[in-house]
Design goal:
Elements (H helix, E strand, L loop, with lengths): L4 E7 L6 H14 L3 E6 L2 H4 L8 H7 L6 H6 L5 H13 L3 E6 L2 H9 L4 E4 L7 H10 L2 E5 L5 H13 L7 E6 L13 H10 L2 E6 L5 H8 L4 E5 L17 H17 L16 H4 L2 E4 L14 E4 L10 H4 L17
Parallel strand pairs: 1-2, 1-8, 2-3, 4-5, 5-6, 6-7, 7-8
Antiparallel strand pairs: 9-10
Helix pairs in contact: 1-5, 1-11, 7-8, 10-11
């Protein structure tokens, strides 16, 4: 099977600091993820100056007076920041990735010759945005938090009409609540998306912990996206629903193990590693007491014991009623 693509979502957890962003890259590189992803936006293009923050943003920033615009303005990465972070990612042998949240930012990312684009959940009903990404004719990952199946189908249709092939579209099941309650995860919806839309699937996770993305891989996800931070107690909108460094590393290790566990051919047969244990663990038919030549084998004079290199215990009914052609001591393998 192909390797699961793991995206470590740094997002805006750099809190506007390029040095913090580099520390996040260090963590992602050490964890062994494939991409570290940031967010590219101009606050004035993304949100009105008076737009309120979401409830989770108010709770996580502990600032109800600040507008969403003010919060985002402090979290922007400049063009120079992007180039510096890309260069740093190259040094750390990890791929840089970013999600654009407005058309100007899309053009900027396109100028960097990215081959992969990510549509965040909030933009899945943004026709001009979808059409522009579709026109790039590159690989596209779509997050589907807050979506209905119809909205997902419509977004895919826009991308395809603009020039992107369906083979280049991966749809991530997602819930846009930070953190997502376990009862609202609904992982079966990921499989429903695959069946209904006939696309590759993945999962963008906002739950606490690492169990759900691991389960998603076991269910067929080929892309996993997960927020991470240096410290969950840091101020900011997304830290509280993010993994800390050791958790990110544990998630990656678990996903790589699951990849191996589900990589078989699906044929039920003894594996190479367990074949040596077959005779040790299975049982043969043996004498349960001394048996004289000419005696009839019955349930009182034979039983089953390890090892399994005699007559298989599955041939029990074939042995019962046969006559002993030789003498047996207790524990001897029966021969017929």
């Amino acid at each position: 099977m192909n390797k699961v693509l793991i995206i470590a979502e740094a997002g805006v957890n750099h809190n506007g600091s390029i040095e913090t962003a580099k520390k996040l890259i260090d963590v992602a590189s050490d964890a062994g993820v494939d991409y570290v992803k940031f967010q590219t936006f101009k606050a004035e293009n993304l949100v009105s100056t008076t737009a309120p923050k979401a409830e989770y943003q108010i709770e996580n920033t502990q600032n109800q007076n600040e507008t969403q615009y003010q919060m985002l303005k402090n979290l922007e990465l400049s063009i120079e920041d992007h180039h510096e972070l890309i260069e740093y990612c190259n040094k750390k042998n990890i791929k840089f990735f970013s999600t654009a949240f407005d058309l100007e930012s899309l053009d900027f990312l396109n100028s960097l010759n990215f081959n992969l684009y990510k549509i965040p959940s909030g933009e899945i009903t943004n026709y001009p945005y979808l059409h522009k990404i579709g026109s790039f004719k590159k690989e596209v990952i779509i997050s589907t938090g807050m979506c209905t199946m119809q909205e997902i189908e419509e977004a895919i249709s826009v991308l395809m009409d603009a020039g992107t092939s369906k083979e280049n579209i991966i749809v991530l099941h997602c819930n846009t609540e930070y953190p997502t309650p376990m009862k609202d995860v609904n992982l079966k919806a990921m499989l429903a998306i695959q069946q209904k839309c006939n696309v590759s699937i993945g999962y963008s996770d906002h739950t606490l912990g690492i169990e759900v993305p691991i389960a998603a891989v076991a269910m067929g996800a080929i892309v996993i996206e997960k927020h991470f931070t240096l410290d969950r107690t840091m101020p900011g909108p997304d830290h509280a629903a993010s993994l800390e460094p050791l958790e990110l590393k544990a998630m990656v290790g678990a996903i790589r193990n699951i990849e191996l566990a589900i990589s078989g051919d699906g044929i039920k047969k003894p594996s190479m590693s367990e074949q040596k244990n077959i005779t040790i663990a299975r049982k043969s038919i043996v004498a349960s007491r001394d048996i004289k030549k000419g005696e009839v084998f019955n349930e009182s004079n034979i039983s089953t014991k390890r090892p399994g290199n005699g007559i298989s215990a599955m041939k029990w009914n074939e042995v019962i009623g046969k006559i002993a052609n030789e003498e047996y001591k207790v524990g001897d393998f029966i021969k017929v």
